[in-house]
Amino acid sequence: MKILLIQLRRLGDLILTTPAISALREHFPGAQIALAVSRECEPLFPAIHGLQKTFLTKRGLRDLSAWMEIRRAGFDCVVDFTRNDRSAWVTFLSGARRRIVSDRLKTKSKFRARFYNEFVDCAMKQMHTADYYLALLQPLGISAGANDPILDLPSAAQQRASSIIADQIHHQPFAVFHPGSARVEKFWEPERWAKIIEFAATELGLFPVLSGGGHELERAHLASIREKLHISVLDFSAQLDLLALAALIEHARLLVTVDSAPMHLASATGTPQVILFGPTNPFHWRPRKSPAAILFGESPEPLRHFQAREAERPMRQISTTAVIDAMRLMVSAPAASAV
Predict the structure, then answer these.
(1) In what order do the strands lie in the sheet with 77-80?
(2) What global pTM score does this model have?
């Protein structure tokens, strides 16, 4: 059997698709499984086990060569995790006999629904994102349970992290701070980031490491944080590739981050983390098995109960005290395993 999976959303979505890929490989060990993704997700490929082929999409006519290759591949089945115009077109173009999507597409777009012939009763708004992707495999006889992301970090990434730990961190316990995002509404105040970074260094004894992407607004946000710091940090923002960052996070004592790709990387490596949510609902995106303290709105303590319907909340509602208390909690090993 030849199966095409279509995941054209962001990095976090692709990472949360890995439990579905793993379940599919386990159920069909002899199948040829291919994955179509957006170009920004390419760095993750070496860590995803069980794929025989990947297709990069670039939008518009630049996708022509990928479209032709998908058509020629002769897929038997397509599972569309994305459910938008581009993924519907790729599904139709594949010529697959079985074309699977959520039945919510029927209400979203009757025209696009014509491109599919199997519909799964599942709604992303009512489920954790990883569960939603797993649910779409039901027509294939797969009913796997919930799991955190599954990544197999390559040796090159592990070696890069080991070199950093030996040469620049000098084997000290360390914490990674990832304040940035492609969405400015996820930014927390720079002076608050500076305070918690200094707390980690002076009170928790954790060597501070700063990470971030290369987006212009994110770089400016990180620069503002650095200006307010009274201690030195090891700044790897826009310097580490995704999988080297994952390998570094794997060895960290703690990750403090907003809802972003590093949160999902830490979920895959089992690293304790403190996560600041605001414009996104943690019900859909949070880690569930790896240790995590999740802060949302004005709650002084990490959340333990989550609801499918939550209004977005300004990041400024999360207090510095709440983050510091959560960091202290997560550095305690017994507490970390219980959160």
Answers:
(1) 53-57, 32-38, 2-7, 77-80, 98-102, 118-120
(2) 0.93
